[in-house]
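step=encode ok
step=design start
structure_in=
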């Protein structure tokens, strides 16, 4: 997609951070009623991705190192761009960046997003739990076998 651009940045790039955070406000706080106080966390230690279409931000995501491995999180795509493989673009870019770090890669998936993550190579582990009053399940990346 020639009109799509991915910007990678850290918290120090406040201009792009604010653009990314605004998308999260729309998707998580406005659409999903997530408490704003819990939406803003671990920003300084995260690695961010912002997808632009024709110069406008349409999606974001981030990863960070935790004691358990690399945690992918805060995937948000604006409503009118959902179902157009934008999430797949971010996921592929993130996996390309984090897999060489040779750590466990995991995420907490909202239940409705589980099929998306399964297609990307993630497997559910454990029980369903509530996070921000939304049902989630932990998922771990398991690369496809090469046989």
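sequence_out=
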């Amino acid at each position: 997609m020639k009109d799509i651009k991915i910007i990678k940045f850290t918290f120090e790039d406040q201009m792009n951070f604010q653009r990314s955070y605004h998308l999260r406000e729309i998707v998580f706080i406005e659409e999903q009623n997530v408490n704003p106080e819990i939406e803003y966390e671990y920003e300084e230690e995260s690695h961010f991705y912002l997808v632009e279409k024709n110069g406008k931000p349409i999606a974001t995501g981030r990863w960070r190192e935790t004691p358990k491995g690399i945690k992918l999180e805060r995937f948000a795509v604006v409503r009118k761009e959902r179902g157009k493989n934008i999430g797949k673009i971010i996921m592929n870019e993130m996996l390309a960046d984090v897999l060489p770090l040779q750590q466990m890669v995991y995420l907490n998936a909202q239940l409705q997003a589980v099929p998306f993550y399964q297609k990307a190579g993630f497997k559910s582990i454990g029980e369903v739990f509530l996070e921000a009053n939304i049902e989630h399940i932990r998922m771990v990346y398991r690369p496809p076998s090469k046989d």
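step=design ok
step=annotate ok -> The radius of gyration is 15 Å.
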